[in-house]
Recover the amino acids of this structure.
């Protein structure tokens, strides 16, 4: 009869009260299991205490050693037999037995798993065959998980893996991650964010399991894990157009852009959407037609090796600009909210990533002008960044260079004012097509248009792509050549030079419009060529330095109270009137006579001139070169500024001529004048 053990609450060897043990207790299964499951230190401590009671119990110390040594030998032998039983079992995991979801039927079947198996609790486990270990199995994961597909990304050359998993009675889920994630104990724990039960304790086992499953099933009998070509971009990829063609190539970054990707899908009634758009096309309004055509033209930019450009519809608030943008979005996707249309408050990096993902599909932004604060209020810089077709090269945490995002598309937006201005650089102006809203409202009933396109969308873009794949691409290229020639002929006829960087985008827009009419709508409602021709800027309109010169004069005029007024007398300039603004001195306005409002020159302190050029966005050196070349600069020999004295203080100034017929040469100007009035 066992007394000592049975009357004690025992969790480990340390819990046993040696003073209560009797001889029969030494043969108890409870004691044997506790002993064999304990570590070496616990065993030694227990045996020392037990031997101290050997006389009371009635057994020698030598017999105690022999007895417990035998228990260990028997326990190890039992582990070997258990391991052999595992090895005799089937080496396959059949996920059909786990009620595999039908939507993943292409993955279902038997995966060769080596010694990994699924226990009755659904855990992924592997038996331990080490005779020196008293653990019977390794647990990789507490729920079913499988690597089901490998991807080779054609942009980065990196490999990704799709993992399929299910917890409890929930539906099966999948996640695509970089292969490096399942190869590092530090990275694999990030899978917990997707719902996979992994932590620092089972991370190593899960890595081992996934590596084994990929190794066992990527080749050889069964070859359950298929390797496919993948991409992280939409649009034209290896002759396919994503997301519509996914048989030969798949997206491997769906989690990152799931909202946008889900939005790009035909929904509702095709005829309802087309009937609405036919009515809008034949309303005589150009604005909505421009937005739809530019949205479609986006998928042609790379075929013409053209640069991305911005189409901006501008005008008063409440005229239908946002509805027109939503209509352009409904060509491809759900126009509601921020499903496809991008929030203007997005960061620069966020925009670049979205552009890289859309690739050839249009980026639609409601009021792009709101983004200028992300670029320090410099719209030119923003335009250059968005139309560059590539993001900046950035370093990652590991100091490796991150692969830049690239895109070739059209950015469609709206605003209350033109995106371009006279002070903007010509390069930026050339990348923007500003179209002003005409008188009245774009739509008869804007609310009705919104309600219709929110429930019916995504048809035209898909059909247009099919047209391009079935001979339309060759047609639109011929159309573009014809329109390019027409634009050049009309410019020659009128004796003007149209800016080529605007001519090419407009020719693509006109060609897209013609193909859309001939192949899909067939109603003759097309853009007016003469109106489109008038929108294209001329080279004279976009001279950076000339616009900068005018902007500098505007700045001087707006700050006239910060200049001295002086009269030129030969080579001497006499200051007559001190600056009205007593806290600042920008230089002096020089008159030819006593009429102090008739200025012929302006001396602007060099540091102020540099600041104005910086605000305009043009290099000081380039502007000085242009001024000198055009006879608008008076300077010292070998320099592009002058050393003068204003109120007795020597300073370097840039002397700009307001009338180049008045140009005079002098090497050094001595100035006499009134003192500053502070």
């Amino acid at each position: 009869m066992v007394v000592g053990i049975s009357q004690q609450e025992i969790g480990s060897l340390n819990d046993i009260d040696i003073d209560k043990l009797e001889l029969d207790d030494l043969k108890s299964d409870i004691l044997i299991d506790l002993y064999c499951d304990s570590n070496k230190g616990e065993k030694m401590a227990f045996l020392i205490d037990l031997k101290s009671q050997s006389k009371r119990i009635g057994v020698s110390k030598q017999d105690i050693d022999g007895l417990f040594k035998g228990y260990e030998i028997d326990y190890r032998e039992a582990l070997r037999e258990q391991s052999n039983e595992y090895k005799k079992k089937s080496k396959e995991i059949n996920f059909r037995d786990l009620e595999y979801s039908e939507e993943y039927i292409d993955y279902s079947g038997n995966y060769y798993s080596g010694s990994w198996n699924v226990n009755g609790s659904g855990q992924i486990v592997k038996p331990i065959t080490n005779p020196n270990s008293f653990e019977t199995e390794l647990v990789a994961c507490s729920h079913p998980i499988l690597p089901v597909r490998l991807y080779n990304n054609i942009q980065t050359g990196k490999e990704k893996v799709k993992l399929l998993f299910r917890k409890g009675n929930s539906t099966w889920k999948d996640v695509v991650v970089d292969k490096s994630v399942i190869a590092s104990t530090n990275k694999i724990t990030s899978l917990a964010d997707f719902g996979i039960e992994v932590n620092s304790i089972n991370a190593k086992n899960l890595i081992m399991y996934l590596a084994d499953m990929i190794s066992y099933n990527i080749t050889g009998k069964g070859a359950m894990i298929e390797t496919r070509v993948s991409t992280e971009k939409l649009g034209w990829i290896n002759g396919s157009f994503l997301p519509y063609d996914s048989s030969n190539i798949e997206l491997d970054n769906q989690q990152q852009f799931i909202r946008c990707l889900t939005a790009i899908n035909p929904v509702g009634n095709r005829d309802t959407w087309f009937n609405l758009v036919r009515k809008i096309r034949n309303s005589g309004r150009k604005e909505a037609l421009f937005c739809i055509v530019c949205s479609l033209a986006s998928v042609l930019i790379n075929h013409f090796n053209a640069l991305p450009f911005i189409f901006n519809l501008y005008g008063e608030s409440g005229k239908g600009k946002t509805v027109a943008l939503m209509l352009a979005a409904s060509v491809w996707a759900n126009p509601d909210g921020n499903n496809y249309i991008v929030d203007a408050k997005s960061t620069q990096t966020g925009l670049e990533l979205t552009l890289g993902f859309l690739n050839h599909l249009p980026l639609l932004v409601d009021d792009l002008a709101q983004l200028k604060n992300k670029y320090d209020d410099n719209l030119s810089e923003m335009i250059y960044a968005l139309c560059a077709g590539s993001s900046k090269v950035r370093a990652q945490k590991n100091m490796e260079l991150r692969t830049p995002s690239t895109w070739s598309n059209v950015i469609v937006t709206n605003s209350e004012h033109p995106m371009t201005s006279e002070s903007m650089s010509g390069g930026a102006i050339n990348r923007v097509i500003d179209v002003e809203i005409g008188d009245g409202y774009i739509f008869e009933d804007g609310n009705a248009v919104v309600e219709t396109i929110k429930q019916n969308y995504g048809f035209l873009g898909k059909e247009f792509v099919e047209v391009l794949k079935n001979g339309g691409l060759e047609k639109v290229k011929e159309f573009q050549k014809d329109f390019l020639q027409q634009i050049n002929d009309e410019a020659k006829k009128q004796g003007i030079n149209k800016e080529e960087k605007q001519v090419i985008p407009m020719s693509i827009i006109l060609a897209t419009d013609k193909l859309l009419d001939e192949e899909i709508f067939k109603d003759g409602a097309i853009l007016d060529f003469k109106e489109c021709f008038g929108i294209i800027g001329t080279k004279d309109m976009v001279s950076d330095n000339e616009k900068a010169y005018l902007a500098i004069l505007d700045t001087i005029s707006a700050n006239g109270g910060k200049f001295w007024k002086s009269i030129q007398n030969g080579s001497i300039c006499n200051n007559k009137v001190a600056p009205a603004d007593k806290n600042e001195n920008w230089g002096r306005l020089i008159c030819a006579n006593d009429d102090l409002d008739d200025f012929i020159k302006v001396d602007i302190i060099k540091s102020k001139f540099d600041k104005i050029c910086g605000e305009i966005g043009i290099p000081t050196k380039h502007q000085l070169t242009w001024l000198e070349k055009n006879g608008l600069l008076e300077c010292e020999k070998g320099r592009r500024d002058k050393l003068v004295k204003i109120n007795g203080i020597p300073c370097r100034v840039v002397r700009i001529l307001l009338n180049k017929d008045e140009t005079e040469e002098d090497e050094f100007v001595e100035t006499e004048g009134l003192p500053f009035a502070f």
